[in-house]
């Protein structure tokens, strides 16, 4: 497929491009860094039981698997992706105000479903804008994207201290204020015109190219990655509730979440030096084993008297069970999928991760309701299934690139 040429205007680098994109990433990840650890606490504070919390968390995951590729494809066809980004952030801000209404189960579920449609595409569209700058002007992607990780850490820590003072009722306020800041930053988004190539989650690319990726290696690997990732659903949905139930303060909860992200970033920084020569199958096996060790250890930390230090130790395994999965997936795609098929490959991997995460999140509610923290043990066989799929992928690994 030939690429449309850039117009003379598109060859001109917008003023302060890197600074503007850094600001977008920084504001983009604050609401995300608040929602993941603290939204379940707000739901519990409003009287929802574990099964209802699981549905409220899982239902949007099922929905966004379908809607996000459609909206990112819309951004590809728009006159400028920045306008789509601004519109989606504005819609997210408006819909997040729905959490200020009387929090009945039906109301919160409806708001969460509507919000996920317009909120989830923020990150891939921002990535698309940043990568256009990398291709056209030689911008450094990591120097822009790192501000998202920094702000995510800040949201984890600051959110914990805010909740220590105000209680969980502050969660919707923080999310609303953070989305307002994201909208202000979005108005400064650089205008780049149409993209030259479809974004990573383009539905058109997936439909056009996916059949060439339907081979045992790619499918086993993608599903295996999705299943290992999904074994984290119990953690994401209920670990904050568990930590609060044993008397940990909101500030400690925030620091524990932040420590996991710090560990993940450290793995990104040292991966090439220590693991760069490993095969993708070996990397994924280490990730799966790290996940299993994590799920065995979590329920034992408090009964064994290891205290908060023990939880910090277990959270360090985030560098293995999460970071190595992310790196291994991209390494697999880079080594075996030809460039013109990478968009479809990313989209299929996104679907696999989203679908299995939603399924396990839905099951996590009854697990926590019945078994409490021992529900982590149920994540062990899930991670084992992922390891088996990675083993099957390794046995069917191709000797050349896929997709040509």
From TrEMBL:
Keywords: Cell inner membrane, Cell membrane, Membrane, Transmembrane, Transmembrane helix, Transport
Compartments where found: Cell inner membrane
Broad class of the protein's primary localization: membrane
Domain of life: Bacteria
Magnesium listed as a keyword: no
Gene3D superfamilies in UniProt: MFS general substrate transporter like domains
Domain Major facilitator superfamily associated per the UniProt entry, residue ranges: 20-378
Pfam families referenced in this protein's UniProt entry, alphabetically: MFS_1_like
NCBIfam families, per the entry: mfs
The protein's name: MFS transporter
Organism: Mesorhizobium calcicola
